[in-house]
């Protein structure tokens, strides 16, 4: 069995998280060789395509927030270069996790510019 599809991965960068989303298009299954005789690929392909349509949004919600950042990104600019990802941003760094604290309770914050 061989599976072919057009798959895209997009990077998602927010002020608090870094992650990705995936998109799958034109999913196709082909039977290359079978030791058990004829196999109905249409039914299997429809089942797997249906599963992809259901699971992809669920997976994307988890992937979008994959890495929690220990700082806030302010006005990020992202460039995809050959072999690497360039992120230019101002950082708002806090000593305690800002995910558990309200802004008025922060003990320390300082603005840094990353060059």
Automatic annotation (TrEMBL):
SUPFAM superfamilies: Bactericidal permeability-increasing protein, BPI. This is Lipid-binding serum glycoprotein C-terminal domain-containing protein. It comes from the Eukaryota. GO terms for molecular function: lipid binding. Pfam families: LBP_BPI_CETP_C (PF02886). InterPro entries: Bactericidal_perm-incr_a/b_dom, Lipid-bd_serum_glycop_C. Residues 8-91 form the Lipid-binding serum glycoprotein C-terminal domain.
């Amino acid at each position: 069995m061989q599976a072919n599809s057009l798959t895209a991965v997009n990077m998602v960068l927010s002020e608090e998280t870094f992650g990705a989303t995936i998109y799958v298009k034109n999913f196709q299954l082909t039977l290359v060789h079978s030791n058990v005789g004829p196999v109905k690929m249409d039914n299997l392909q429809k089942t797997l395509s249906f599963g992809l349509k259901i699971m992809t949004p669920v997976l994307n919600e988890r992937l979008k927030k994959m890495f929690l950042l220990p700082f806030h990104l302010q006005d990020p600019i992202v460039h995809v270069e050959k072999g690497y990802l360039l992120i230019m941003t101002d950082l708002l760094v806090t000593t305690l996790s800002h995910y558990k604290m309200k802004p008025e309770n922060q003990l320390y914050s300082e603005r840094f510019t990353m060059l």
